[in-house]
Amino acid sequence: MIKFLGSNKIKTAVFISGTGSNLKSLIKFSFLKKSPIKIVLVISSNPKANGLNFSRKYRIKSKVYKFKDTIKDEIVILNYLKKNNINLICLAGFMKILSINFIKKFNGKILNIHPSLLPKYKGLKTHERAIKNNDKFSGCTVHFVNSKLDSGKIILKKRVKIAKNDDPKTLAKKILAQEHILYPKAILKIFTNL
Predict the structure, then answer these.
(1) Which of 107, 134, 149 is the last residue of a domain?
(2) Which of 44, 48, 112, 157 has a CA between 20 and 30 Å from the CA of residue 18?
(3) Which residues are known catalytic residues?
């Protein structure tokens, strides 16, 4: 894993596909003195991703790759990450699955936040599944990315109570608010526990 040496912050890329609310919270966290990361790159799989507005606002370089040809796009992205000396990737609502080859190249240096209490509800429609199963709690999990979907080593989890009147939208909103707190905490945990 990467070492964090005081003032030398870890050059980080954030991968997004949508609203970018986790990107925004990670950018704000990166400005803190205690933060071990510096976000220097935003990669989006969606040219219309609202999160690209945050990269513009905070003057962070961004690139869009539509992943029409995953293998070709990944080679280009890997070269671009290398050129920018990226040492950590944070997936934040990134809706594409990275290949095993890509993950191997960044082994132990890719994090993801998932809107469920893993190992429960890997993949999509997590809120609908939790409500349908009458779960009392759901939540979010930050984990290392490995070759299996949402199966990497768990760093931190946060439980969120499911109210009787919650629907997938209200539950998603409650969990997202916790994601914004949990992701920075997980990053701090990794780099202070080295």
Answers:
(1) 107
(2) 157
(3) 114
